[in-house]
Design goal:
Shape: globular
Number of strands: 0
Structural class: mainly alpha
Oligomer: single chain
Largest sheet: none
Distance between the termini: 73 Å
Helix content: 55-70%
Order of helices and strands: HHHHHHH
Length: about 170
């Protein structure tokens, strides 16, 4: 990372950014991993989202002044995920199998709302403003996601995988 020259006028020193990444990078990566529903030890999409969000945060580091850099990075992370997830209405073909995680069964919109409101603690009003959706829509997406998460997973019948006895 190239060092930025610190100038006077209330700007944040560039060294503060490295300290911010060291302190908040793990939580932001976990948030990105929840959004992408990837396995924690194999999460290239989440790492890419985090890298792009941190790059945007670094680019505006001097202008943040009193703003919370974590909130700034989280906003960029969520906005990038939303843009990528909602760009195409049809799901893209997967080259890698999706892990059987809890959030993997949710559509991207519901996953985004659940992660922002329940994991990150962002208010529904702020989530709606961030995503450009009405508050009622955010509430419906959150309620639908929580209901889906509360339902027990559908299991195949026990005898479906058992070998059939040979006819006598």
């Amino acid at each position: 990372m190239r060092e930025r020259q610190a100038s006077s006028g209330g700007n944040r020193p560039a060294g503060d950014f490295a300290a911010f990444v060291a302190g908040a990078g793990g939580r932001l990566l976990h948030t990105a991993t929840l959004l992408t529903a990837e396995a924690p030890d194999d999460n290239p999409r989440a790492r890419r989202l985090l890298t792009l969000a941190l790059a945007r945060t670094y680019a505006s580091w001097d202008r943040l002044r009193g703003d919370d850099p974590y909130d700034h990075a989280r906003r960029h992370l969520a906005a990038r995920f939303a843009r990528e997830a909602w760009r195409a209405h049809a799901p893209l073909p997967r080259t890698r199998p999706r892990p059987p995680g809890t959030l993997a069964g949710l559509p991207p919109e519901e996953r985004l709302v659940v992660v922002l409101t329940l994991y990150e603690g962002v208010a529904e009003e702020q989530t709606a403003a961030l995503l450009g959706l009405p508050e009622d829509r955010v509430r419906v997406l959150g309620d639908r996601a929580v209901a889906a998460l509360a339902r027990p997973p559908a299991r195949a019948p026990a005898d479906a995988g058992a070998p059939k006895p040979a006819p006598s």
